[in-house]
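All the exercises in this workshop are built on plain-text protein records. There is nothing in a record beyond a sequence line and a structure line. A learned vocabulary of local backbone shapes supplies the integers on the structure line. The question running through the whole workshop is how a given chain folds. Here is such a record, shown just as it appears in the course material:

***
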Amino acid sequence: MQAKKPLIKKTIEVLRILPKDIDEMWPLVDFMIRESLKYGGSWADPSYVKEQCRVDGMQLFAIYGSDDGLENKVFGVMVTQFMNLPNFKEYQVLILTGKHYKLWVDSVINTIEAMGKLNGCKRISVQGRPGYLKSVIPHGWKVKHYHFVKELV
């Protein structure tokens, strides 16, 4: 039996999902957003994130493409927001999760940096798992603070 020939380009892209397309695209990312929120301490409900993406209070990105040339799939999801602080504007990554991150992490970092610059931000802030540190350091990122958490309820 012959192996299947690749039918599509092997590439993974970070695609911005526009507010008008949130309802149509949400089923593709819903599970990953739910899991990320659960793992991250349930700081919001998925319905809140979805509504904020619908009104452009948050921005939704799908990490999408093919690693085998046979089928396209969603590898990850990112949710961001712009925060106007008293002294400057900051681009915040609120959710970043997915599978096979080594295939797409550099593209995500480039997208984050480009979005921040394009929108006049002075700083980017990402709250992430410790494992992401080794991926961002080569791009010139630094640890500024540690985030300590203790559940009180």
Remarks:
- The beta strands are 12-17, 59-65, 73-84, 89-98, 123-126.
- The radius of gyration is 17 Å.
- The helical segments are 22-39, 46-54, 105-118, 133-136.
